[in-house]
Amino acid sequence: MKTIVIGAGLGGLLSAARLSKAGHEVEVFERLPITGGRFTNLNYKGFQLSSGAFHMLPHGPGGPLARLLGEIGAEVRIVRSEQTIIRVPLIKGNPDYAKGFKDIPFIEFPSLLSHMDRLKIAFLIVSTRKNHPSGVTLEAWIKAQVKDEWLVRFADSFCGWALSLKSDEVPVEEVFEIIENMYRFGGTGIPIGGCKGVIDALEAVIRKNGGKIYTGKEVSKILVENGKAAGVIVESEKHEADIVISNLGHAATALLCSEALSGEGHAGYLKMLETLQPSAGIKICLAADEPLVGHSGVLLTPYTRRINGVNEVTQVDPKLAPPGKHLTMCHQYVSPENVKNLESEIEMGLADLKEVFPGKKYEVLLIQSYHDDWPVNRAASGMDPGNETPIPGLYVVGDGAKGKGGVEVEGVALGVAATMKKILG
Amino acid sequence: MKINDNCVGCGQCASFCKKGAIEVRGRARATDACVECGMCAPYCPVKAIEVSA
């Protein structure tokens, strides 16, 4: 069996590694001079910044990505983070952190509610595990249960951090899938070496199994013969394959085989592609001599205007920064209408950070934004269209085809695992 | 060096610039330190960097 993978991002390399281990002859074509896509390290002023992701796996060493890496035999050490912390105003009712704040553990979020609402939440935590709510957005569902703006703020901060969406954009069923996965797999973890630690381990597996990875090689066309994927064209050279896996998302993949999809039978698929919305976000990377967060867990910040959460990966892997320095990364959601106002969005994010870290000294290393063709997620969480295409033998993996309830790279791993099941049985 | 509207501001180019000549804030901008070496262009994931030959 010969498989060609288009794109050496996390989804592409996971697929290539898994199939090379199963005995497939594998070739990976990557357009950029580097592998890893939005899941690798960028060396900047001696800091290991990232090309996208936050050097963090949402479900750590017990999650779908860690499991898949284990199955593949990719050697990465993933260290479980401390628990997620929520920063809230010192006095309930204060609109921000200006008059002081306190940090509470994630699971203690109901402690800010009235006694009555706390009972309601305790009941819902039990009842919803059996009967997941569905059919509305998370925000609408929350508002129908408990009238307390704290819960919506908390939900927005969590959805912003984890999905780069607002709670009124996320289907409630997706959130309950995520909650179920939190019970199942546990909380966040940090791969030693950052994102690139994972990418290097996958490449080692692919190479060991005789697979080939070409960088600086752009696929210009996906070949379809007798209605089936048959290979790709790279720099006007034909490369035949039994299976083609694209790491480019459904829309960009469809463009590479537009003739084959032009038939009447595929109109529904093409129409669906038009509804896909990538999610946007901004990452502000900070350098500091003293820790800003002070622990290895996520710090959620629901009482800012823009920043949703922060992590400090040097708490686990000090080598991600020069000796004695910390690397702190802050994420903010960007709404579709504000993608054109990135500069003012960034201003608000920077102002937020002064409130989140009052009196602390830090340097803004780099501000990175992600949207449109290089987004946070190619398909907004909860809207992923699966891994199959109308063309047999052509699959899509990556953040445009995540599995259900899979936050970021965990969703990528779930999507790859599902694809492997289809291919390998 | 011209940076076109494809730029999303991901900063990838800045990390590969040997001269520290790229500022990023919502989008990338070449500063006076840019020597038009073109090193950064292939690293752009959205083909936003046009280097004059």
Shape of chain A: globular
Elements of chain A, N to C (H/E): EHEEEHEEEHHHHEHEEEEEHHEEEEHEEH
**What's the CATH superfamily of the domain at 2-80 and 193-275 and 379-424 in chain A, by name?**
FAD/NAD(P)-binding domain
The average pLDDT score of chain B comes to 95
Q: Please, what is the average pLDDT of chain A?
A: 96
Provide the succession of SSEs of chain B: EHEEE
Q: Under the CATH scheme, which class of chain B?
A: Alpha Beta
What's the CATH architecture of the domain at 2-80 and 193-275 and 379-424 in chain A? 3-Layer(bba) Sandwich
**Low-confidence runs of chain B:** none
Strand content of chain B: 15-25%
Q: Which range best describes the helical content of chain A: under 10%, 10-25%, 25-40%, 40-55%, 55-70% or over 70%?
A: 25-40%
**Number of DSSP E strands of chain A:** 19
Count the E strands of chain B.
4
Q: From the helix content, strand content and strand pairing of chain B, which structural class follows? A: mainly beta
What structural class do you assign from the helix and strand content of chain A? Answer: alpha/beta
| Residue runs with pLDDT of under 50 for 5 or more positions of chain A | none
State the helical fraction of chain B.
under 10%
Task: State the largest interface.
Answer: A-B, 25 and 16 residues
**Total domains of chain B:** 1
| Overall CATH architecture of chain B | 2-Layer Sandwich
User: What is the assembly state of the chains in this entry?
Assistant: heterodimer
